[in-house]
Specification:
Elements: H1 3-19, E1 40-44, E2 53-57, E3 62-67, E4 76-83, E5 86-92, E6 105-113, E7 117-122, E8 130-136, H2 146-149, E9 151-158, E10 164-171, E11 176-178, E12 188-194, E13 202-208, E14 220-227, E15 232-238, E16 247-252
Antiparallel strand pairs: 1-2, 1-8, 2-3, 3-4, 4-5, 5-6, 6-7, 7-8, 9-10, 9-16, 10-11, 11-12, 12-13, 13-14, 14-15, 15-16
């Protein structure tokens, strides 16, 4: 029997067997769906507000850690890698710390389950110390709406670690941001647009309007998000080539 004929017989037999369901198992083979990434806003709450924070992980892995107690000097930025329920990353604690050495880079690792819960651990002595269990903020999955965001916000901006300054900003229905001059006297303005991911996140830029020498925590480009249930508004930006940028944590007054 020729090699070709043997091949033909084996092939036809295989097709017949497949059509009949193989070895008697009529159930289709199971497929494993990979775990979605850890993208989203994760809420970590403790008995004391000063140890509660949001961890924002964008679709690019860009990560921000934001305290709930409006201590803007401890806002941190870094990068998270996540796949199939496991994550790890590094953030720089004290994002707006002028000294730069007070809070070193912090490594963390952990696990997450879909859009449900997350657990992270870090052994750093000062930041993200110990175990933290968080929950997914479902508001992240809502579409970003400039019309819903429009209004006045009272809050604080960073000026230098660990200080902050109370300010009020106003956002128009088309995303124009009006805010007072910076601590250095520089006039500033801003613009917001919905983030390309389609989630409840905005791209934002704060710029100085005149030729003054602006401090590097008075402007910047980054992201912002608004929680309609708590009226809490968070702005997180940085300047190219700098660890610092404009950070604002506020509450909608109307």
């Amino acid at each position: 029997m020729s090699v070709f004929l043997r091949f033909l017989i084996v092939t036809v037999a295989g097709l017949i067997l497949a059509a009949c369901g193989g070895g008697g198992d009529n159930n289709p083979p199971s497929t494993i769906t990979p775990e979605i990434s850890a993208e989203g806003v994760w809420r970590f709450k403790s008995a004391t507000e000063d140890n509660s924070f949001d961890m924002v992980i964008l679709e690019t892995g860009e990560t921000w850690v934001v305290p709930h107690d409006f201590t803007v000097s401890t806002v941190s930025r870094g990068q998270t890698q996540s796949s199939e329920g496991v994550l790890e990353g590094t953030v720089r604690g004290g994002f707006n710390d002028l000294q730069g050495a007070l809070f070193p880079s912090v490594y963390y690792s952990g696990t997450y389950s879909g859009r449900n819960n997350i657990n992270i651990k870090s052994d750093n002595e000062y930041f993200l110390r110990g175990l933290h269990a968080g929950e997914y903020w479902n508001g992240y999955d809502q579409p970003a709406s400039l019309a819903s965001l429009a209004g006045k916000y009272d809050g604080v901006e960073n000026i230098f670690a660990p200080a902050f300054r109370s300010i009020t900003i106003t956002i128009s229905p088309i995303g124009i941001i009006s805010l007072p001059s910076g601590e250095d006297g520089c006039k500033r303005s801003g613009k917001m647009t919905p983030h390309a991911s389609g989630k409840n996140m905005f791209d934002l830029t704060i710029v100085k309007e005149d030729a003054c020498n602006s401090y590097d925590y008075s402007s910047g480009s980054g992201i912002a998000y608004y929680d309609d249930s708590t009226r809490r508004f968070v702005v997180l930006t940085s300047l190219a080539g700098s660890r610092r940028g404009f950070v604002f944590l506020g509450t909608k007054s109307f």
